[in-house]
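Figure-free illustration: sequence to structure, shown twice.
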Amino acid sequence: MSDSDDDVPTLSAHTLAALQDFYHETRTRPDQDRMESDPFAVGAVEEDWRMSQFWYSDETAALLAEEVVREAGEGGRIACVSAPSVYQKLKQGVVDGSDRVSAFVLEYDRRFATYADDFIFYDYNEPLSLPSCVAPQSFDIVLADPPYLSEECLSKVAKTIKYLSKGKVLLCTGAIMENVAKELLDVKMCSFLPKHNRNLSNEFRCFINYPSSLLWS
């Protein structure tokens, strides 16, 4: 990884402008009004530490959303496995091209059922227990953020990823899972450092199995 500022992934001009407009608008409204008027805002559903929920910062969620839109292509299908903040950013309309893809959120937390047909209940302990409407290899890219930093959890989530994905995988997890992730999914670590709204004690990284100029693999 280079120390040069030129090597730091940046949001597209369209996404950056849209985020700035969003920030200006949210700063002028009370928090409750903001959640009611924008159900797709990151944080509209509060984190629940009992379910190991830690939402990405707006900038990280937007950059990851931009990445999966690019890789899915026009008309593509995106699965966000235990990564609701990326799904929310895709639906917010701040990412260029997000209106030309389909996105779904696979989550154990039924509060996300408010997203209707985009919500798919998911328990990583039953990695292949999915609705019959979810066909194998039906997603152009799968972005997954396993809830726990353990080989057992990642192994089960990997089964889900392999079932869902046509090939492309973007895994977000702790750096300590690098060897296990490589063994299970043949992914490699990116230099991009994702950020969360709350500081995590473990170093967090992204792993992919395809060439990416945005994440600088």
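We now fold a second protein in the same way, so the two outputs can be compared directly.
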Amino acid sequence: MDHDMGMAAPPPSTMVMMKRRHFMHMTFFWGTKSEVLFDEWPGDSRGMYALALLFVFVMSFLVEWLSHTRFMKPGSNKLSAGLGQTVLHLLRVGLAYLVMLALMSFNAGVFLMAVLGHALGFFFFGSRAFAKPHNDKRYDDLPPMSC
């Protein structure tokens, strides 16, 4: 009599995949052995880890740039301006979510690069340090990110 109730054993390739240990940190840690955004990236290479940190920094810097830069000309067509603002919003929110997902690696280096990217982006594009005088009160094309 067949006692396995019709269930076949999983193929050998699946069994190998099941043996692979996949550990995810749930607290902040220091170290270059981390996964940021993609499976097995940056891996064990210090160079790839540095590239991952640079990638997170650039993404967070771009979020601030998109938040504080004027792309639309005053008096432009409302429909084209609305479509432009929608595309800018899509890019900003997409990048912000990618930064958030990178932070979910709980790697302290990734956290510091994200905060530094946002801080320097705000310093260059949102603070008064490099602000150009504008005649109108509407300074940015996009409203501030909501919490």
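Summary for the second example: The CA atoms of residues 68 and 125 lie 6 Å apart.
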